[in-house]
Amino acid sequence: MNSTLTTPLLLCLLLISPALFAAPSIDEVQKKFLLDLHEQVLVHDSSESLRNLEQIKHSLSALKTAPTQHALDKIQTDFRRFVGSWKALETTYILGALDDDYVDHPRFIDYFHQAKESIPEQVKKALDSENPLQKALFKYSTKSVNALEYLLFAEPEQGSLLQAMNSRRIAAVEITIDNINLWLAEIAEGYQSKEPLLADSSAAIGLLVNGLIDSSYKLANWRIGEAGGLTKKYAGKPSTQQLEYPLSASSYRAVEAILKIHRKVVDRDGAVDLLALAQIKNAETEVLFIRDQIDVALSILADIPQPLSGQLESEQYKILYGQLEKIHKAYYFMLIDALNLNANIIDADGD
Amino acid sequence: MPMVIEALHYLGLDYLFNPQKRLYWGYLLSSALIMLLYFLLTRQSVARLFSKDLWWHPSARLDYVYFLVVSLIKIGLLLPWMLGVRETSIWTLRFMESLFGYQAKIAVDHQWLVLGYTLALFLLSDLSRYCLHRLMHSVPFLWAFHKVHHSAEVLTPVTFYRVHPVENILFGLRYALVAGLITGVFIYLFGANLALMDVIGVNLFVFVFHVLGDNLRHSPVHFRYFNLVEKWFISPAQHQYHHTVQGGTVNYGGVLSIWDRLFGSLRCSVQQDRYDYGLGDEGKVFRSVGQLLLQPFSYFVRPFQIKSTRSRL
């Protein structure tokens, strides 16, 4: 090539090379983080929950056609699977914070730690009444996941559960599934648009982190601590009734699903995760610490025999509670360290 | 150059290159410019600013040596044991969670949140600095340590660091407690998205104060504000008056003088003020690094000795 051409060409290449190899800006990484989160977590979990609920509906039809123990076992298995996907969706739920129209959706689906009255008592009352079911089950709490658990798992005072699965109870299951499906479908639809998420990426990430902190507190204290009598409020009073899903023995699965979704947001292969975001914000150590604490919690949980109701007073259960508290604290440490306030300490001299 | 700065950082001597420090080159430069402007406007001779009597005064020379020794003490002995904002923030958070239960995070506009946090941190930090400074003067055993700072007979920006390590610990604890308390409360209420409104990593308000001639407080420039302004902000001249033999009972404020006004210790500067710094005869026992470090402890080993007659509240 002619040297009169190559020299300017090389100079041009030299000039544009920083642009070619320039690191992406923080805003670009944040947007990629949210896009990956949207596709791999939010949309995925809402679709998965809907799919699993559809499966329950499917199994219910089979139970209606042939009321066998096998059909009942199948629907119960489907319920437990649904709990896993629903807990994942609930943990990272930020739609309500992004759009007020969606703020109450999780409360219409799940009444754990919300209802003042006993949901099993209310549902039983509705089943025993003469009123049409649509009227008897007028409250959202009586059409929630917790109500569905009662309908699919609560043994009657006399006879077997299969015998208790009469047409009224099956109709109640249908009403409950329809209610949950209604809200889940709206959530899934709400998640279709990426715009609210990307409008202010810093704010959206802040909301997500707040959600994770919230979830880590509830996981440690509401879901594990209170049932084991380990919190201040319930100190020394372990009770299986304080577990999230005492009838279906799905509490273990719920805890596992929540921990796994935390792990997925923090660190997952082939995605811009919280760890990748932390790397460009010099907070890698804190996020790695969170990830390690989640891994420890998952391994402690794996050593606890199922169901949790039989383990409330075991040493491992207490260790799990302590470990979940550590995760909650680790999230706080991440926020505190990000403020970089310690730099001032030794120069805060007198005058 | 970056390697030198890094090495200085690890030795705790990166003062000129670290915006968190008062001796950061940018603040020194802005103070120098303000000083020049002040001298031009007041038609004073700048010659005395470069006087050997000031910069090579025995007290100033002691400041330089003491500064190096104490920097190493701070980085080697104090910093590893110092209570940090991290710990106090998490204590506050856990305390609030146990007292009031878990708080779902309140959604607030990011800009207001950052402004509120930065302002709260600045105001409460300044108030606590006033309180501790006043205690350093009014509690006899604390005064024994604070005398180290007041023993300077000439004031240069390095005099700011003529502080006993015990006082460093107390001011470090004050900062950790106040910043930890505010940070803990803000995270408890608002969670993520909390940030400091800063310029090159320094609280915006503190940065402004540093740029507006903070280093003139310890300097021979008696830079006065109008009295109306001095009722809100401590001027260099007000702080210099605090350093005089007769001025130890007034003007304890750091940045704001509203605390002095509120608690009755404000004195605005006047043209005729005389600035005789030091402790008078008492200052004779603070003439070496060893004396600066050890003399305060004599308060404890000689409990029946007649204590300083320096004014206290």
Strand content of chain A: under 5%
The run of helices and strands of chain A is HHHHHHHHHHHHHHHH
Number of strands of chain B: 2
What is the percent of helical residues of chain A?
A: 55-70%
The whole-number mean of residue pLDDT values of chain A reads 88
Inertia-based shape of chain A: globular
CATH topology of chain A: A middle domain of Talin 1
Q: Oligomeric form of this entry?
A: heterodimer
How many separate helices of chain B? 14
What structural class results from the helix and strand content of chain B?
mainly alpha
Arrangement of strands in the largest sheet of chain B: 1-2
Largest sheet of chain B: 2 strands, antiparallel
Beta-sheet strand percentage of chain B? Answer: under 5%
Distance between the termini of chain A: 71 Å
For the record, what CATH class of chain A applies? Mainly Alpha
Give a verbal description of the structure.
The complex is a heterodimer of chains A (351) and B (313). By secondary structure, chain A is mostly helical. Chain A has one domain (26-338): A middle domain of Talin 1 (Up-down Bundle), CATH 1.20.1420. Chain A has 16 helices and no strands. Chain A has helices at residues 3-21, 26-65, 69-91, 95-98, 105-109, 119-128, 133-136, 145-153, 161-164, 167-190, 195-199, 201-225, 251-266, 274-280, 284-302, 315-338. Chain B is mainly alpha-helical. Chain B has 14 helices and 2 strands; from the N terminus they run H-H-H-H-H-H-H-H-E-E-H-H-H-H-H-H. Chain B has helices at 2-10, 25-41, 52-55, 58-78, 85-100, 110-138, 140-150, 165-190, 204-211, 227-230, 236-242, 258-262, 289-294, 298-301, and strands at 198-199, 202-203. In chain B, strands 1-2 form a two-stranded antiparallel sheet. In chain B, helix 5 packs across helix 8. At the A-B interface, helix 12 and helix 16 of A face helix 4, helix 5, helix 6 and helix 8 of B.
Task: Please tag this protein with its features.
heterodimer; A: 351 residues; mainly alpha; A middle domain of Talin 1; globular; B: mainly alpha; two-stranded antiparallel sheet; 2 strands
